[in-house]
Design a protein that fits this description.
Layout lengths: L1 H6 L2 H5 L3 H15 L7 H15 L6 H18 L3 H12 L20 H5 L10 H18 L4 H9 L6 H13 L1
Helix pairs in contact: 3-5, 4-5, 5-6, 5-8, 6-10, 8-9, 9-10
């Protein structure tokens, strides 16, 4: 945790308030549960750098850091950049795990329920964050592989708007902010 203090702004590093101590406790717990990072230092840097922009959507620090850890793990396991997954979630649902589209897509990554039947798991709950991230990341990775790494086409397929580029454009703009 000493490295963490080094990378925080001086005013925050010097702040010995309860909020600061609470954040350090939460970070330490979250980092300890982060199995998708190369080491503790990488976990600290990534979680801190992504936590502030996510504050707009998720106020609670513990929930925010826990979600970031889950997103990083799901993206890494699927072979995706966690930042592109953050961008997709931002555009799809604004980080609302209970989001439901007019077409019936569910959860943060707006997964269509037909996928559950396609893979023989009709009882899966797409509102569950872990389940939704697993499905969404796997689907996006499939389309990325199918498009031989062409992210714009993969994003259009993910959204069901292949041949149109308004959706990929929105995600790529958001991705640029998450990098």
């Amino acid at each position: 945790m000493a490295l963490l203090v080094f990378y925080l702004p001086v005013s925050v590093a010097q702040d010995k308030s309860e909020d600061h101590q609470e954040l350090l406790t939460i970070l330490k717990k979250t980092i300890g549960q982060s199995d998708s990072f190369e080491d503790e230092f990488d976990a600290q840097v990534w979680l801190i750098s992504k936590s502030n922009p996510l504050k707009r959507y998720i106020k609670d620090e513990e929930k925010r850091l826990d979600l970031l850890r889950r997103i990083h793990r799901a993206a890494t396991r699927a072979g995706l950049s966690p930042e592109i997954v953050l961008a997709v979630i931002q555009i799809e649902s604004a980080f609302n795990p209970y989001a439901l589209s007019h077409a019936g897509a569910q959860g943060m990554m707006q997964v269509m329920p037909f996928w559950k039947n396609e893979i023989g798991r009709p009882d899966d709950n797409l509102i569950d964050v872990e389940t939704n991230l697993r499905y969404g990341c796997t689907i996006l990775k499939h389309y990325l592989d199918r498009e031989k790494g062409h992210l714009t086409n993969a994003l259009a397929r993910y959204n069901g708007s292949y041949g149109k580029y308004w959706y990929p454009e929105k995600v790529l703009v958001a991705w640029d902010r998450w990098k």
